[in-house]
Amino acid sequence: MPDPILYFTTAAASLCGLAIVALTALRGWNGWLDLKRAELLRRTDDSAPPPSAATRIEVADLKERIRKLEAIAAGVDL
What we know:
The chain is mainly α.
């Protein structure tokens, strides 16, 4: 006849393991929610004016220069 203490020990260990997994999952969920809240706050805190057209053109020009320099460094002929 099987020992009832073995069943009780197995059940208690399983319950403890399930509790640990559940607490870990809840902590991860709360961390993810905090991250999303921080992203939303950062998005709403942007009160800086949008960049002017001249600034955007200058940034595009710089990106094009960087692309060309990277191509030269990689040995690609433009």
